[in-house]
Structure to design on (478 residues):
């Protein structure tokens, strides 16, 4: 009870493990695994982190503060359970993803690809927190940028028609300087854009490097807990899909949100990946407009309109849900069957052996005459499908192209296919189905054996269809 989790993290590559290894299992670095404790424990054991850092930034009232017992701290938190409400449609959507509002003193990390809209999102959040419609009037919020000048941020705010009086902008990359400046304002929240641009004097390495990112985040965590001011950090996601300073950051902070979106689409998803104060199943849906992000209150319409507009491409297109760590993604699988020509099979993003197996099962068990067909498979947007959970969607896409029958709009497929044509369940069914439901899909095809995992789920308007085998699926869908 109240025990912090200890992990060992490689200081070179960020690989983490539940136990210590002399040689890092990922990069083979020798003696690079360092002990790392997750959570509140840092507040009492993290002093050495600050050894060579000047303490001048600490708020005055806390200079005389004494270490507090973890149990006392938790008692306080549990009793009040107080959250800062976020007002308006946009605020409600963000608040829901945060688990029902903003918790005082929490450290929130928001990750995402460059250009996805993180700065835009945070500027809007900063504005509504500063306005404080549901919080008894305006209070100062500081938006610190190490990436843009205050004029650039000002311009953006102008375009988004943000004119909040209590929103302060500051361009700096020096954490001590930033925290010093916070003392002159009685802040309601602090935003740092981004964690990869800030640095601590006295810590080795350049900004954005593992040790800087880690130490800066720890100092900011201490600041948040001491002052009870919520702090938002923006973190860029690297090519490998992790927030730089790899997993380390995620262990330190209280809440991790990911912002996702396709380059060609205006929709943005805000997903909770870790939340010490709420569920991680929440998904926020937004649309990027001329004047910033707008909450999409009815996601199903959004997805339907998008698909209907390119309905001529729908034959041979099927949607499935894959997991990446704890994140669930929807991906589209395209199939093209060409009769007569060569019987070549080209696959892109699907394992060739797996594709061959699914095609064979379709021939043998479902009676599809694919023998004289060339079959092409492609996973849209270059993701590669490494999970068997996508089997059913691959099969559905092939059927759809072969039968020249476009799949109905708003349908998703989850399931593994066995050699007998049977549809098998896959791990994390609840999480996958939850994503489909949250995104407003009309129908989701799942394995019969997974039906039991549905009992605890709120299915909304989504119809769940459980199938035993491929024949059953084809009869129902086509
Ligand atoms: P930005 O928030 O700068 O992304 P990040 O901080 O994640 O790198 O947003 C980048 C994109 O958003 C940019 O291409 C322009 C677009 N955008 C809009 O479409 N509407 C807006 O109101 C704003 C502010 C940005
Ligand atoms: Mg930015």
């Amino acid at each position: 009870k109240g025990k912090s989790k200890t992990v060992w993290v490689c200081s070179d590559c960020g690989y983490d493990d539940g136990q210590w290894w002399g040689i890092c299992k990922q990069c083979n670095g020798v003696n690079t695994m360092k002990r790392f404790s997750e959570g509140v424990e840092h507040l009492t054991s993290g002093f050495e982190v600050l050894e060579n850092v000047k303490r001048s930034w600490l708020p005055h009232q806390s200079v005389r503060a004494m270490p507090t017992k973890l149990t006392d701290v938790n008692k306080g938190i549990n009793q009040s359970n107080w959250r800062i409400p976020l007002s308006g449609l946009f605020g409600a959507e963000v608040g829901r993803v945060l688990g029902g509002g903003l918790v005082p003193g929490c450290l929130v990390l928001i990750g995402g690809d460059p250009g996805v809209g993180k700065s835009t999102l945070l500027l809007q959040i900063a504005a509504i927190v500063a306005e404080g419609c549901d919080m008894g009037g305006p209070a100062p919020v500081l938006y610190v940028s190490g990436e843009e000048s205050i004029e650039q941020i000002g311009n953006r705010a102008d375009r988004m028609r943000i004119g909040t009086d209590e929103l302060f902008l500051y361009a700096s990359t020096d954490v001590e300087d930033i925290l010093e400046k916070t003392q002159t304002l009685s802040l309601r929240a602090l935003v740092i854009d981004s964690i990869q641009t800030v640095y601590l004097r006295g810590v080795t390495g350049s900004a954005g490097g593992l040790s800087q990112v880690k130490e800066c985040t720890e100092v900011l965590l201490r600041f948040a807990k001491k002052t009870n001011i919520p702090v938002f950090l923006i973190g860029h996601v690297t090519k490998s899909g992790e927030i730089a300073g790899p997993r380390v950051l995620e262990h330190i902070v209280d809440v991790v949100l990911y912002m996702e979106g396709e380059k060609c689409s205006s929709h943005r998803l805000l997903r909770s990946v870790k939340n010490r104060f709420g569920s991680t199943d929440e998904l926020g849906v937004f649309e990027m407009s001329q004047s910033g992000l707008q909450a999409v209150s009815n996601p199903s319409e959004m997805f339907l309109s998008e698909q209907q507009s390119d309905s001529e491409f729908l034959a041979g297109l099927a949607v499935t849900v894959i997991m990446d760590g704890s994140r669930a993604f929807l991906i589209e699988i395209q199939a093209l069957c060409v009769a007569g020509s060569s019987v070549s099979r080209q696959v892109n993003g699907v394992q060739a052996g797996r594709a061959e197996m699914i095609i064979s099962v379709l021939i043998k068990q479902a009676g599809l005459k694919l023998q004289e067909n060339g079959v092409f498979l492609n996973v849209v947007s270059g993701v590669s499908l490494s999970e068997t959970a996508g089997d059913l969607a691959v099969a559905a896409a092939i059927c759809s192209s072969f039968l020249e029958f476009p799949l109905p709009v708003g349908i998703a497929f989850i399931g593994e296919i066995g050699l007998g044509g049977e549809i098998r369940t896959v791990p994390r069914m609840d999480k996958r189905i939850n994503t489909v439901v949250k995104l407003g899909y009309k129908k989701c095809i799942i394995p019969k054996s997974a039906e039991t995992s549905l009992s605890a789920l709120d299915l909304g308007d989504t119809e769940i269809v459980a199938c035993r085998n491929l024949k059953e699926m084809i009869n129902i869908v086509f």
Observations:
- The two ends are 52 Å apart (CA to CA).
- The first helix runs from residue 41 to 45.
